[in-house]
Structures are given as C-alpha cells and as structure tokens.
Amino acid sequence: MGQLYRTQILLERQQHENLKELATAEGRSISEIIREAVAGYLVERDEQHEQQQWAEAMEELAKIRKDIESRFGVYPGDLVAEVRDERTDELWRVFRLLIEVLGRDHNSRPTDPTTTRLA
User: Fold this and answer.
1) How far is it, in rounded angstroms, from Cα 55 to Cα 115?
2) What's the rounded Cα separation, in Å, for the pair 83 and 3?
3) Residue 37, pLDDT score
4) Which residues contact 103 (CB under 8 A, 6 or more apart)?
5) pTM for the predicted model, two decimal places
6) CB environment 87-115: b (16+ within 10 A), e (fewer)
7) Predicted local distance difference test score (pLDDT) of residue 100
8) Alpha helices in 27-109, H assignment, sequence order
9) Which of 12, 29, 92, 110 could form a disulfide with 116 if both were Cys (CB 3.0 to 4.6 A apart)?
C-alpha cells in the first residue's frame, strides 16, 4: 500500500454503524473498507467512462457512414464474392499459362487450381 493521506468524511449514522459492524466482522478497520469501496468505485467509473467513449465513437462512425451513403450511395454488389471470383479467375489464368509453358494438355482441368501440383 502506498502513502496514505488523512481525509475527513461525514457519514450518516446508519452508514457509520453498518461500516463499524462490517469492520468488526471482517477484522478490518473502517478506513480499509472505505479505501476498498473507493477503489472499486473509481475502477467502475473508469470503465463507464471508457464505455461512454466507445459509444460516442460508434455514434460518430454511424454518422460518417450515413454521410458517405447519402453522398455516394451504397454499392449494390457483393464485394467479397466479387473479389473471390476475380481471384479464382486469376488462378485459372495462371494455371492455364503454366500448362502452356510446361506443354501439358490444355483440356485437362483439375477441380481445384489452388491445390493442384504441377510435377
């Protein structure tokens, strides 16, 4: 534990009695219990602040997305599928080129060019 600083706080009667009972039951001082409670509160507050920042960032991203949609529209296609199709076409093109270079039969077409090995 680091250096401690004296701070005076005013508690309601019931709060003080509850803390005193808890301290006695746990064999600790009221100060220890209050320090623990304050530490927990500060951690929780930091977490809430971080969650609030994330929520604000997500809100801002949603605004940016809406702005982009209103200015440029939404792409109607499926970009992932299109990129995959282009990549498959490219692999077949390279595969056919390799067959030509190696002098193999052009009509033989394996089912998966990504796993076919040229001997």
Assistant:
1) 45
2) 61
3) 97
4) none
5) 0.53
6) eeeeeeeebeeebeeeeeeeeeeeeebee
7) 86
8) 30-72, 79-102
9) 110
* CB-based contact 118:98 (threshold 8 Å): yes
Tens of pLDDT, residue by residue over 16-65, are: 999 999 999 999 999 999 999 999 999 999 999 999 999 999 999 999 99
Q: CB neighbours of 55 closer than 8 A, spacing ≥ 6?
A: none
* Token duo for residue 48: 């809430």
Q: How far apart are the first and last CA of the chain?
A: 70
Task: State the DSSP code for 113.
Answer: T
Tell me if 19 sits within 8 A of 11, measured CB to CB: yes
C-alpha to C-alpha distances, 113 to 6, 24, 81, nearest whole angstrom = 75, 75, 18
